Amino acid sequence: MSRKLSIFYIILLLFFGSSALFSPVTGDLSGDRQALLDFLNNITHPRSLAWNASSSVCATWSGVTCDRDGTRVTALHLPGASLIGQIPPGTISRLSELQILSLRSNGLRGPFPIDFLQLKKLKAISLSNNRFSGPLPSDYATWTNLTVLDLSRNRFNGSIPAGFANLTGLVSLNLAQNSFSGEIPDLNLPGLRRLNFSNNNLTGSIPKSLKRFGNSAFSGNNLVYENASPPVIPPKQKKKEKKGIYISKPAILAIAIGVCFVIFFLIAVLMVVCYVKRQRRPETETEPKPEKLRPAQKMPSEKEVSKLGKEKNIEDMEDKSEINRVVFFEGSNLAFNLEDLLIASAEFLGKGTFGMTYKAVLEDSKVIAVKRLKDVVVSRKDYKHQMEIVGNIKHKNVAPLRAYVCSKEEKLMVYDYYSRGSLSLLLHGKIGEEGHVPLNWETRLRFMIGVAKGLAHIHTQKLAHGNIKSSNVFMNSEDYGCISETGLAVLTNPATRANGSARRYRAPEATDTRRSTPESDVYGFGILMLETLTGRSSVDDLKEGIDLVVWVNEVIAKQWTGEVFDLELVQTPNVEAKLLQMLQLGTSCTARVPAKRPEMLKVVETLEEIERN
Ligand SMILES: *[C@@H]1O[C@H](CO)[C@@H](O)[C@H](O)[C@H]1NC(C)=O
Ligand SMILES: *[C@@H]1O[C@H](CO)[C@@H](O)[C@H](O)[C@H]1NC(C)=O
Ligand SMILES: *[C@@H]1O[C@H](CO)[C@@H](O)[C@H](O)[C@H]1NC(C)=O
Ligand SMILES: *[C@@H]1O[C@H](CO)[C@@H](O)[C@H](O)[C@H]1NC(C)=O
Ligand SMILES: *[C@@H]1O[C@H](CO)[C@@H](O)[C@H](O)[C@H]1NC(C)=O
Ligand SMILES: *[C@@H]1O[C@H](CO)[C@@H](O)[C@H](O)[C@H]1NC(C)=O
Ligand SMILES: *[C@@H]1O[C@H](CO)[C@@H](O)[C@H](O)[C@H]1NC(C)=O
Questions:
Q1: Who has greater pLDDT, 44 or 325?
Q2: In contact, 137 and 117? CB cutoff 8 Å
Q3: Whose atoms come closest to the Cα of 161: which ligand?
Q4: Which atom of ligand 7 is nearest to the CA of 152?
Q5: Structural domain total, the chain
Q6: What is each CA distance from 455 to 283, 395, 466, 523, 584, in whole angstroms?
Q7: Which terminus of the chain, N or C, has fewer Cβ atoms within 10 Å?
């Protein structure tokens, strides 16, 4: 619980102080590097952290984040890094530009590392889930900018310091599951939004200034509750109380994680929007060149970020009746890495039919793709229902949906990231790219077989895909095609899908109704085959107004069949017969009359035959 909550804590930091994270600093990176090495060399760490003294701190050291210019270390995230023992003094505290420090879930012991108080830039610190013990220091005047303090799940004892009152910027304070005793000081911290003092050994009563957090924030102590009835609630909060103050633990967790996701993407989107604007580059449907958001790229102004973040935050926090949640599917181990998303560098991958896709690199180098759906027209219930269906399609030729987020504003989907890029990218190359290596016959055939199998499986589940196109097709670990974006077509407004390259794949009968059926999928697959065989780029053809089906049929009718194929294929020895077979299959899939198109199972059979012979 506290671990999950700490996700939330770190997120808070993003609203309440993202500004200085990117401010120019003067200082010494080699000093930071030495400080980190001194730390690591003097602490037991059975698991290697891969901090190679001869490689770049900012670029390669796991858990280390630098400022925009790569001149100083600003964040250190080492959650669950198997660090054991006492923190060597005078090491981490030398990282004078450090703003985020997460050492949660390690085996750290000893007293509170008092030299951390020298980290004047610190905005968030989590020592949660370690074995720190003894009393806390009394004076916090140096942590002027601290917003998040998480000391939960340790063995700290003594009283809660009244000096916390000097942490005027504090937004979140978690001291749960320690051995604090004595009375709770009257902490007048108006900005505090989250507080957890539960499971300690506190006595006395809850001070007035903290009553707004409710008794649940103080459970598991020896406190005297002045009132057996629910806590006094400021008038402003009364309304939402009615909606339900008694939120279950999973709901709180869900809200926290949901909020995290929402905010992260809000910020990411903002950055992307700003960046795209500045670059004035047109958005295209095929993957554009990946654009690094960080580091060393233009950021939205501080004002923009913090304003948006704050508004969003307040809105989400006050709307606790909303069931914001992220749902993970079996087989994904992402749950443990969600927090890392927040410091992950996000990269805009492309704008597709259903929204933007981003690539996020997690702390442990895991890479995921996150799709942010736009124009979702179905109810939340229907959305979730559809996600459950999609998430439970387990097939090696269907790109697995790892998780989804469903909140009021955001519908997000988490997929694996395919480093080789989509079929579209491999076939046509990046826009403006020179020296693109043409895709060979083998690979093209494997793409087709994979997609055909994936689609056939989807159809046996009584589903339709509804958005087949080459930018949705990737290569799985067995080097066969697999298809992404399954089942999204039913979620969004068909009108918004009327444009773009998706149109090229749409079956004639689906142009008006825009309903997806297995037959219209077969048509889309036929176009995909023709695209793969001819190597014609969907974007170029769209501009020229060429209908691939019409063009292919014209060329065939004129007996120039050879002209249809991509040069690379024509030059491949001994595949002429196979090419013709494929072309025939492609054209039969794109038959005008739906009933004349073969079923996907039949298509798979034919393709496998072609592969075997
Ligand atoms: C820690 O290890 C470094 C070597 O990296 C050494 O120079 C230093 O004296 C050790 N002790 C402390 C407290 O940093
Ligand atoms: C450290 O990195 C350098 C090059 O960056 C490499 O040659 C060396 O093998 C690496 N050392 C370790 C221990 O990984
Ligand atoms: C605290 O944050 C403010 C605003 O971001 C900044 O101007 C100030 O320098 C920070 N204080 C310290 C000690 O870093
Ligand atoms: C705190 O714990 C230490 C042992 O870790 C003990 O020696 C000390 O007396 C405790 N202090 C209080 C106030 O309980
Ligand atoms: C806050 O810090 C100042 C020193 O900067 C100190 O004089 C004051 O006592 C502190 N307040 C509390 C409540 O500890
Ligand atoms: C809690 O405090 C009481 C005295 O106030 C003490 O007797 C008891 O041992 C403490 N319990 C724990 C778990 O520290
Ligand atoms: C406080 O932390 C405990 C874990 O020690 C958790 O069970 C509880 O739900 C938390 N309460 C709130 C209000 O966050």
A1: 44
A2: yes
A3: 5
A4: 5
A5: 2
A6: 29, 10, 10, 12, 19
A7: C
